[in-house]
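Board notes (copied after class):
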Amino acid sequence: MKRVLTLIMVFCSINIAAQNIQKDSIHHTVKKGWMLGVLPAIGYSSDLGFQYGVLADLFDFGDGSTYPKYNQKFNVEVSGYTKGSGVYHLFYDAESPKEGFRSTIDISYLTDRMLDFYGFNGYKSNYDKDLPSVFYKMDRKLFRISTDFQGRIKGNLKWAFGLGYYNYKIEAAENDLEYDGTLYEKMCSNGMITSDEKNGGQIVELKLGLVHDSRNLESDPTRGFFTQAIFSTSPPFKNDGNRGYSRISIIHRGYIPISGDKATFAYRIGYQNRTGGNIPFYALQNITTLYFKQITSEGLGGINTIRGVLRNRIVGNGVALANAEFRYRFCNFRFFGQDWYLVANPFIDAGKVTENYPAYSHLYELSNHLDVNPNNNIPSTVIYDSLKREKIHWSAGLGIKAVMSKNFVISAEIGRPFNKQDGSSGFNLGLNYIF
């Protein structure tokens, strides 16, 4: 397990408009007008390293009649991580409860000099902890624009439409390996990753679907259900590695009260699978979403999906996942003039590949016993075995949340996988629940 060496968090909250002193049905002051939350943070993620930067949320609660639901929200993040990632992120979300219309816009530029890449098809790709960590890395730059819209059909049932543009730039992670480079480089040189895909490409993706949402709150729901069924398709781009594809994504989330609003059993089950065409290798890890609760929606493995498992460890043409956790709310307090409470959430996660990525099916070995350094030779290591059986990847762990005004969630979670092939453990400090 990687330790958190330093953790310093300072939170400032500024109310721009007047607030109603009346308490809501739980324990919070009803907000009106605009509220700005600014968070300078030094955090840590076992996937990304130490974080430094600035996060800000700007909420518009209007006349307070729909509090804690907001009329609109802006989120801005500019941050970097010591393992080489950079985040430049702008997010806007607006909802009209009476009309039942919602729009979200995401514009992001994400750089990751050490993006995790463990091959394809889960346990068919072998993970060797004795190899240098850079062997399982590649360099990715992603520019993303995503616009999503939802409108009421009847009651809690909504239609959904989205359009996204993704521009991927892929290359080998900087390394000094002496045995033909990283896993990514070996798969490129052997044709496992095709020449027209290896450097990335462009994707325009259209999303159509249905959403049913009966949750009582957005950021920290205590009751209700959320279900989305989204069909997405992308046309081909000539000479750009994207030959066109389509896939279906079905996700269901439930929030069942155990003791009023104090305790909730929360779960998520999801299934995503290719329905046609060929998904480029650099887009396999994308998990379809209409709302980015984290900066990325990728997996399986890592902070968004199976906590504690290596990031993007479980990648294929199709995946299934399940999460279950108990959320206990306690310790209400006021800090910087705002209402806060804490939440403890022990969890268990699971997932597996349901359809293999067909880029290769043979057994490949890392050979020649080349040196990593003059005194340490690397033994021959199987990196892929098509005959190996894929099975469920499990993890479990514990999280703690600090929730401000029911809308701003600071999260710390640590998870541990059940199988050493999925790593040792993972820790993340960031924002929001993963579902």
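Comment from the instructor: The CA atoms of residues 160 and 273 lie 19 Å apart. Residues 8-431 form a domain with the Porin fold (CATH 2.40.160.50).
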